[in-house]
Amino acid sequence: MRVLQLIDSLEAGGAERMAVNMANMLSETVERSYICATRQEGLLKATIKPEVSYVFLNKQRALDWAAISKLRRYILEEKIDIIHAHSTSFFMAILMKWVLPKLKIIWHDHYGDSENLKNRKYGVLKFCSTYFSLIISVNTDLKNWAHSHLNCKKVVYLPNFVVQEKDLHKVTQLKGISGKRILCLANLRAQKDHHNLLKAFKLVHKQYPEWTLHCVGQDFKDRYSDSVYQLVTALDLEQQVYFYGSCSDTNAIIGQADIGILSSSSEGLPLALLEYGQGQLPIVATSVGNCVSVIPEACREFLVPPNNPELLAEQLMVLISDGILRQHTGDLIHQHVMKHFSALTVKEKLMSFYTEL
């Protein structure tokens, strides 16, 4: 079995991390494991294992004949059986299916705005879904949506997963006081609702002025990111809130933090929560998407409604005020994540899907 993970970029986003993690994981199982970035490389390129074959297309437009020809030749030369297309890369996968009909196409839906599926545009996706052999959804809402709206008969739910790395290569040094750091792993996108986070942190800062907030994620230099920085200034938090951009050393960063937070207005199944859990961080998060599945029942008081900075701040302060509770909560979440979202558990399910094809 030879499987190609297809992804538009290798920037440090959730879907991109999952594509790389799957390619790395499968290199130990299938005959050959491959990954292809269609449009853009990025930080995650350095995390691809040597055993995984990598190709970059440098695609410049929707119908880039040079990129299409390059991928077709590569698939033929490597005798690839399955293309596992992540997020918006499905169109390139379907082009390959049209010229190489024996290919099996899996589409992996990482759509993060699952609270607003009624507004999702899916005309092209619906047409292409006729050629999918399987759709994998990262939460049950997306699975149900695909069943109702797309033309692929086989749709399954497969959770995101975390990969345990032995070494923490420490590059990024978090600012602030050790033992008093709140971490938010989230690209600067509107659905991550940093406005909610900053308003909550302002309330926390009034009670606990030594605590600091650390935001790690890609800055797209757009109106949303501008609005986030403007709010930091308006709330007079320039000395307490730090932005680091995209970072590849996530484990090392988590190792320096004390609480993990996610303030999103909408989610799929956020990898950030799984990474917090793997790193034994206690978590405060909004109850959107499949976030609830990451938090064990005993810790669900730390799930709050979206767009409610008062409640978000309240639960943050519960953890800040009690170091023993922070440790206990982090341990419970860690055990839950490693039991239900480990690479081994997901690999077995994924291999069964591939084998059926």
Under CATH, the topology of the largest domain can be stated as Rossmann fold
Helix content: 25-40%
- Going by CATH, what is the homologous superfamily of the largest domain? Glycogen Phosphorylase B
**What is the level-2 CATH architecture name of the largest domain?**
3-Layer(aba) Sandwich
Shape type: elongated
Protein name: Glycosyltransferase
GO molecular function: glycosyltransferase activity
InterPro entries: Glyco_trans_1, Glyco_trans_4-like_N
Keywords: Transferase
Write up what this structure looks like:
The chain has 357 residues and is an alpha/beta fold. It has 2 domains: 2-161 and 342-356, 3-Layer(aba) Sandwich (Rossmann fold), CATH 3.40.50.2000; 181-340, Glycogen Phosphorylase B (Rossmann fold), CATH 3.40.50. 38% of the residues lie in helices and 17% in strands. The chain contains 12 helices and 13 strands. The protein has helices spanning 14-26, 65-78, 90-99, 123-129, 140-149, 194-207, 223-234, 250-254, 271-278, 309-320, 323-340, 343-356; strands at residues 2-9, 32-40, 53-56, 82-86, 104-109, 134-137, 155-157, 181-185, 212-216, 241-243, 259-262, 283-286, 303-304. The protein has a 7-stranded parallel beta sheet, with helices on both faces. α6 (194-207) crosses α10 and α9 packs across α11 (323-340). It is elongated. The mean pLDDT is 95.
In terms of topology, how is this protein built?
Blueprint: E1 2-9, H1 14-26, E2 32-40, E3 53-56, H2 65-78, E4 82-86, H3 90-99, E5 104-109, H4 123-129, E6 134-137, H5 140-149, E7 155-157, E8 181-185, H6 194-207, E9 212-216, H7 223-234, E10 241-243, H8 250-254, E11 259-262, H9 271-278, E12 283-286, E13 303-304, H10 309-320, H11 323-340, H12 343-356
Parallel strand pairs: 1-2, 1-4, 2-3, 4-5, 5-6, 6-7, 8-9, 8-11, 9-10, 11-12, 12-13
Helix pairs in contact: 6-10, 9-11
